[in-house]
């Protein structure tokens, strides 16, 4: 398929977002229902709260809160732990029964709430071996901290991380590893070069943005930052090719609108792009724009579920999206004094959810 025609309808079985931030407290109460509003029935939840989710008990309690906030919506929440010294190899065998599917690695200081992040993977050797045995996934934020003495900054931090990915993939060949939110052609090629134990998430917003879009526009600023047009094209081509290593992880990251819109002389604006409430129509719109809308079901459900070994049930919900003349994205979402602004606020999306069969 090149591009769809108005009136065309595409069906996706149990859409799954394999990387989403749902925050905590009143902000979480506001944004958690947006997973379902955006057309999704599975949310792979990031652990970088304050304090971070580092124990089974914390993950269980967090999941309870998310289920409460989601109300009657039938969303499956898969939980992750924050890679730190608090994780012990002897505990890994109990994680799946508690609903914990992965461990998220944050290099220290590279993104939101990563001050407790790691500086070296070597000391986690026994933990990673236990994760291999028990089928727990390692999720990598694929950047290294900026170091101007080594000419490392946000524009090349991802590419400089890629040898670390290759080393981990070779050292732990039975450990399933996901390079999260790839932004560069180099990252796409690195994932392709690894074995079947390595996959990669791609966000919706990185299929749209380049450097020009976030330079001076705080609501497009995220970590990792969007890169160059050739990099964006590489992400698009990875999806268009139908390579099952690449699937959706939205990295939808809500922040109060004031912290997104405001920078001071001593601190920058918050990093994160919020896509959850419009996610499936947005992805359809973007894939349609580069001739890959026929990959929608694979990218937003089949490939990710395949890698995580979480197939949709035979009676799983089916979501139908239709190409339309244009639907305006809501300007903001507010509740209990919290306000968030979605990606593409006030812009038009040419796809919308028209039916859900549960």
Automatic annotation (TrEMBL):
Lineage in the entry? Eukaryota, Fungi, Dikarya, Basidiomycota, Agaricomycotina
**Assigned protein family:** Belongs to the metallo-dependent hydrolases superfamily. DHOase family. Class II DHOase subfamily.
| Record-linked PROSITE patterns | DIHYDROOROTASE_1, DIHYDROOROTASE_2
Q: What is this protein called?
A: dihydroorotase
Q: Which GO terms describe its biological process?
A: 'de novo' pyrimidine nucleobase biosynthetic process; pyrimidine nucleotide biosynthetic process
Q: Does the keyword Hydrolase apply?
A: yes
- Specify the pathway: Pyrimidine metabolism; UMP biosynthesis via de novo pathway; (S)-dihydroorotate from bicarbonate: step 3/3
Q: Name one GO molecular function term.
A: metal ion binding
Offer one Pfam family short name for this entry. Amidohydro_1
């Amino acid at each position: 398929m090149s591009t769809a025609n108005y009136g065309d309808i595409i069906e996706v079985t149990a859409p799954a977002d394999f990387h989403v931030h749902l925050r905590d407290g009143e902000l979480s109460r506001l944004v958690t229902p947006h997973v379902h509003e955006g057309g999704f029935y599975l949310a792979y939840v990031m652990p970088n709260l304050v304090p971070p989710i580092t124990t089974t008990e914390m993950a269980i309690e967090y999941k309870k809160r998310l289920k409460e906030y989601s109300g009657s919506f039938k969303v499956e929440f898969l939980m992750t732990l924050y890679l730190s010294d608090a994780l012990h190899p002897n505990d890994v065998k109990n994680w799946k029964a508690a609903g914990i599917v992965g461990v998220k690695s944050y290099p220290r200081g590279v993104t939101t709430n990563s001050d407790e992040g790691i500086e070296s993977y070597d000391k986690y050797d026994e933990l990673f071996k236990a994760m291999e045995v028990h089928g727990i996934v390692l999720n990598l934020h694929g950047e290294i901290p900026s170091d101007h003495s080594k000419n490392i900054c946000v524009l090349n931090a991802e590419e400089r991380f890629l040898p670390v990915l290759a080393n981990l993939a070779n050292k732990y060949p039975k450990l399933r590893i996901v390079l999260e939110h790839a932004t560069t052609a180099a990252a796409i090629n690195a994932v392709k070069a690894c074995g079947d134990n390595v996959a990669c998430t791609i966000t919706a917003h990185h299929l749209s943005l380049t450097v020009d879009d976030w330079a001076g526009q705080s609501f497009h600023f995220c970590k990792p930052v969007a890169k160059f047009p050739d990099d964006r094209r590489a992400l698009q081509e990875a999806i268009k090719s139908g390579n099952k290593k690449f699937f959706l992880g939205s990295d939808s990251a809500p922040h109060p609108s004031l912290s997104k819109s405001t920078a001071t002389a001593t601190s920058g604006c918050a990093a994160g792009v919020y896509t959850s409430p419009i996610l499936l129509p947005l992805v359809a719109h973007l894939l349609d724009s580069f001739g890959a809308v026929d990959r929608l079901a694979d990218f937003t459900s089949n490939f990710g579920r395949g890698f995580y070994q979480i197939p949709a049930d035979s009676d799983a919900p089916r979501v139908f999206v239709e190409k339309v003349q244009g639907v305006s994205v809501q300007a903001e979402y507010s509740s209990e004094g919290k306000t968030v602004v979605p990606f593409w606020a006030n812009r038009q999306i040419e796809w919308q959810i028209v039916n859900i069969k549960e």
